[in-house]
Give the backbone structure.
Amino acid sequence: MIKTIKTTLILVVMSLSATSLQAQDLLARQAPVDKKMKQVDSVALNQLIYQEMLDNPASDLYDEFDNISTHYRANTPLPDEATIDLRGFCMPTPSRVITSNFGARWGRQHKGLDIKVYIGDTIRAAFSGKVRVVRNEGARKGYGKYIVIRHYNGLETYYGHLSKWLVEENQEVRAGDPIALGGNTGRSTGSHLHFETRLCGVALNPALMFDFRNQDVTGDFYTFKRSKYAAESAQATRLRGANASTSGAGRLETADDDDTEMAIAAPEVSFAPEVHFHKVKKGETLQAIAKKRGMTIDALCKLNHIGKNIRLMPGQILKYN
């Protein structure tokens, strides 16, 4: 009897051991399958994320991507703080000459930097992204021929007064790709590039991020903080603007101009006392204005960064001393 019980116990133990070994074998065989499934899930997820990024760059900031609205405001509130990755940049032009600062100018808000370029100069994408708007505002209005690109770092960059587009809406571009040729279209007093940097539709001072004189960005990252923006913008204009004499503090405000978008204003530029302004009247020529203001045509053109053959428009503002 005892021998029979021992035999039965041995058989039970062997059976349990076999079951345990079979289970271990099953787990061992299942592990690579689970690993492969996890890889498949990861690849599928990454593809979805990549596709969303292509369809709508910076989708964590912007609800939509369209070719209709020039500026985004209503559904894309400006965060109190945002860090913008400036690595992998390309300067939009090799020109180092800034002709007009960001901020208050002639009673309006100038929402970008004006960089001296000549008609036909190559303009390049500042960062990688997707072209959102390619449009022409007309011969005497606003940006003239312009481009808006949304970048993966959350910024949108604007390129205005172009003579020719080299890209189309919804086209993907890499930093440094040629996107346009410099020009003098729209409301412009001479050939130049109007360059804007916007976050959620709000114009930020490009001098906070771009140093055109040194053809570089100001760092690997720029962290926008609403509470510190005014002082930082003023300092950026003093260090990297068109001149070194700026005063006042920036402020967050709504600019009531023909764009009617919200903008953050940099300090108003204070020109040297000897610089004055002349508003062009119908029929006036450079020769007549120079004579009236006691200057040579060359001096007048140099002060305003314009050519002698420019077509003057009534209401155009020229500096003189």
Summary: The chain is about 25% helix and 25% strand.
